[in-house]
Amino acid sequence: MIKFFRKIRQNLLSEGKTGKYLKYAIGEIILVVVGILIALQINNWNENSKNKRLETNYLIRISKDLENDVLEFDKAIRLAKERNDRVIFLQDVIENPKLLRDSTDYFVQSIIAAGYTYLPTISNHSFEELKSSGRLSLIQDETLRILIAKYYDFTFSHTQWKYLRESIQIRYNELSRGILNREQMNWVLTNYYNPDSLSHISEIELDVDGIYERFKTKKGFHSFLPEVFADKYNDMKYIETAKIEAENLKKELNKKTKDNIR
What we know:
The chain is built from 10 helices and no strands. It has 262 residues and is mainly alpha-helical. The chain has one domain (2-261).
């Protein structure tokens, strides 16, 4: 093809048709420019198509991560409520020992379980990969990009205070030390984590009356219970908010994914 155009130019020059040659040369230049523009357009289309597929893939992955987050939030809310119910029971039984009659197992288990802390695990792998690879711009919708960043900033800010929750649990364990002996603690752990398993210790051997007598003497433990309750209550409120944020963000991601696939 190049030889063909070159031959035409040479013929026009040899015949002295300079005007026609100039017109032809201009036409050839225009043709080359148009070809380049078309090639660039096709390249841009291919690149945009590739980026859109990558964007969709990340949106789907982040949506799946959010789905896991919601499950974690549900678990954390359930456990925080259960443990705060145990804190309330321990506070009530201080004033009303009769509550032990029908709740001996619950009382003994609560001495340990009420202080437990469960922090939900946030699935941020896809977002971190997107951010560390410098591909955040793949998410072309700026509003959506900001919503995603805000969600992970919000959840990360809560984990920054993890040491405070751990310190409360450590303090709780210190103040409750001595209420249960080793055998009683093993009984609690066995029955708490395996509620369907048979108890290997009788109520008489468990010595609930002795446990309660030691429990009554732990005044520092009693005064610490409201702080334990407040910590779990605040956690529960944060987690409820985080769950709503995750569900709303997931809806937006799913909507954008459907638009991309169309």
